[in-house]
Amino acid sequence: RKEVEQDPGPFNVPEGATVAFNCTYSNSASQSFFWYRQDCRKEPKLLMSVYSSGNEDGRFTAQLNRASQYISLLIRDSKLSDSATYLCVLDSGYSTLTFGKGTMLLVSP
Amino acid sequence: NAGVTQTPKFQVLKTGQSMTLQCAQDMNHNSMYWYRQDPGMGLRLIYYSASEGTTDKGEVPNGYNVSRLNKREFSLRLESAAPSQTSVYFCASSGAGHNQPQHFGDGTRLSIL
Predict the structure, then answer these.
(1) Where would I find the H helices in B1-113?
(2) Which residues of chain B have a Cβ shorter than 8 Å from any chain A Cβ?
(3) pLDDT in tens, A73-96
(4) If you average pLDDT over residues B11-19, what whole number do you get?
(5) Buried residues in A63-78 as b, exposed as e (16+ CB within 10 A)
(6) How many beta-carbon pairs under 8 angstroms link A with B?
């Protein structure tokens, strides 16, 4: 299994839709998990951390399943401004993070 | 609050030229990182510095050198640029500890002809 695997997409959804992304990882020792978003030709920006019990930030919900080694991101009521690439990120066990290649989301009017 | 500042934002070099990419952060972070991002490859770590005075190789260090000048600044040097080093370079920083997210500069777009 690759360190971090994501479906590259694109996921094409209409405004108002609910969309979910999954990410699987191979390093069972990873302790910290994040979702970042990256707009075209821009830097990655932290969207949210992912906690063991799951957490929510407005329209965004993140879940962690350690047993199956995957994390998920759910976006409700999609907005045009949600169009971006979503990166799954986890710690490598050292002082570094491992980034997935991202899932592209396109929200259309 | 500037966060992570990278200079220059754009640069075109000829093969064999050298240059240094500058990065500075004002968040009092211990750790700093240099990545390159190529289409279809995602972010790849070049070098990192877990604390002032230390540097370590990442996934793709060949052809690069780094200097952690002080706690704020972490520079990336290309001694003899090659077309394969055409990429977007991102600097990032984070606080101490495994659970800290990284904060990115807005990137340097480098083309090697």
Answers:
(1) none
(2) 31, 33, 40-43, 45, 48, 50, 56, 58, 88, 90, 98-107
(3) 999 999 999 999 999 999 877 778
(4) 96
(5) bbeeeebebbbebeeb
(6) 47
